[in-house]
Amino acid sequence: MRSHYCGELNASNISQEITLCGWVHRRRDHGGVIFLDVRDREGITQVVFDPDRADSFALADSVRNEYVIKLTGLVRARPEGTINPNMRTGEIEVLGTSLEILNAAQTPPFQLDEHQSVGEDIRLKNRFIDLRRPEIQQKMRFRSKVTSVLRRYLDDNGFLDIETPILTRATPEGARDYLVPSRTQQGSFFALPQSPQLFKQLLMVSGFDRYYQIAKCFRDEDLRADRQPEFTQVDIETSFMSEEQIMAMTEEMITNLFKELMNIDLGSFPRMPYSEAMETYGSDKPDLRIPLTLITVSDLMAEVDFKVFSGPATDPKGRVAALKVPGGNSLTRKQIDDYTKFVGIYGAKGLAYIKVNDKSNLEEGLQSPIVKFLPVEVRGALLERLDAQDGDLIFFGADSAKIVNEALGALRCKLGEDMDLYTCEWAPLWVVDFPMFEETSDGGITAIHHPFTAPSCSPEDLKANPLTALSQAYDMVLNGTELGGGSIRIHQASMQEVVFELLNISEEEQEEKFGFLLDALKFGAPPHGGLAFGLDRLVMLMTGSSSIRDVIAFPKTQSATCLLTQAPGEVSEKQLKELSIRVRKPVAE
Ligand code: ASP
């Protein structure tokens, strides 16, 4: 129907007759001349209708925002003084000669350029309109480019794109499963994949050697800002490649992507052991753009007459850490109170601090509600360890190591953002040497990555010291966000059985849930490993979006519903009968 996209016209088209199809973005009546801004996915062009052509003029007068139109006209230079340098098509306009209304539109629930005045709920409910916003269109296009560049890299490197099932068995990645009842096997359920993990391992056992898939994954967990119940992974698995080789190859894939689409040079990624990341940044995905670090001061606080510090300082699972904020002295009481509330989210019971007014005067030069509890020698040793200067502020975390790390780790990022402490724009790294397991609150152990991750030690050593054993897992982190993670996998059934045992999975359960994997490992499984990148988060970071929902065409809300389709929805009695399912109404109803 069209000869050109609206957004691609420029001075080189002057004097050409063109045909455009698109939406009326705006209609303006300028004293006898009608201006229509016509929009399509490439941008907006200004079209002028004058009364000389009565038919098209009358039609142009009758159209309203979001009508779908087709028009023919002549491209001409905009008159002197009306050139819009902020618009791609700002040098030209089209003199409309004929106009056809392809479809009318009701008044939209919000105008595209006034989307901010309505709540996100209204935008998600009318997502088909929201998606017309040029900003979101840009993001969707960018996302498409990202997948195309990644695919190209993987195709060029001999990876095969292989699909794996959506109706499957549970694939443990630490979340709840989405279940689908089976009609043909009544009382049985499929689970939607939390990831294609086991299938990609089986593909390695089958000899495909290099696999990838842009894969939908489903995890029923309580949603946080950057999570969605269904999300997309760039899922990768390889055989006969070492941890080093896999990391090098995928690092190259990501650096190429940033270079090609954004002309950004990420450089080569530093490596950091998990233990160092937790100790220094309180996080396994440290944001290295922020120069603040956590410094352990447990040893200094062990003897002080202040239980809040001495307790965690002498508890083997406790930690007392300090976070020095250079120049932080200027923070107001109110700001400090707000930060205290903020760390409360992470379970911290308070946020002790010291303002360093005059470091040469340990009696009077430190301003703090807690300094009176610290002997002068401790004050001196503390300032020395932190290399504190006049004008600095020192925050403290004192609790279980877990709470201190989470609270101060998050505070570090918040301060970085609030005080704009960033030292660079992009800070990638690999976090390596993760432990195999961590303790759960009920005293059991759980896999940090997933139960198919290979340990760095023998089965005997793993059994002897499960909580200190390291794994061959690696995470790629960028600006405090985990872009992707993976591991070398267990490829021997005997090792896999040891891990299952340590995770307290009985032999019957192993057989029932993972019998197929254990079998596969016994029939010639090659050494293999891989990783998966979170595509949504990657695109979110690259486009500087504040919400993951901005880079997903049809996202779900925080309560895991789709406002557009009203999913999940009730089903008919007939459908339930076919499945032999009777719904127990939730108690509240
Ligand atoms: N399956 C893992 C995940 O979804 C990634 C991997 O180990 O390859 O996190």
Strand order of the largest sheet: 6-9-10-22-21-20-17-11
Strand content: 15-25%
Q: What summary fits the major beta sheet? A: 8 strands, mixed
Which whole number gives the mean pLDDT?
Answer: 96
Terminal-residue CA separation: 54 Å
Bound chemical compounds: aspartic acid
Overall, the morphology is: globular
Low-confidence segments: none
As a whole number of angstroms, the C-alpha radius of gyration is 30 Å
Secondary structure class reads alpha+beta
Query: Helix count, per DSSP?
Result: 17
Can you give the helix content as a percent range?
A: 25-40%
Total count of strands: 22
Could you describe the 3D structure shown?
- The chain is of the alpha+beta class.
- Helix content is 30%, strand content 24%.
- It has helices spanning 54-62, 120-125, 127-130, 134-156, 197-205, 243-262, 274-281, 298-301, 307-314, 333-344, 376-386, 401-418, 459-464, 493-502, 507-522, 535-542, 573-578; strands at residues 17-30, 33-40, 43-49, 68-77, 92-103, 160-161, 179-181, 189-191, 210-218, 230-239, 271-273, 294-296, 318-325, 352-356, 366-367, 393-400, 428-432, 437-439, 445-447, 473-478, 481-488, 528-534.
- Strand 2 (33-40) and strand 3 form a beta hairpin.
- Helix 4 (134-156) packs across helix 6, helix 10 crosses helix 12 and helix 14 (493-502) packs antiparallel against helix 15.
- The longest helix is centred in the first third of the chain and has 23 residues, at 134-156.
- It is globular, with a radius of gyration of 30 Å.
- It starts with 16 loop residues before the first strand and ends in an 11-residue tail after the last helix.
- Aspartic acid (ASP) binds next to strand 21 and strand 22.
- Aspartic acid binds at residues 173, 195, 197, 485-487, 530-532.
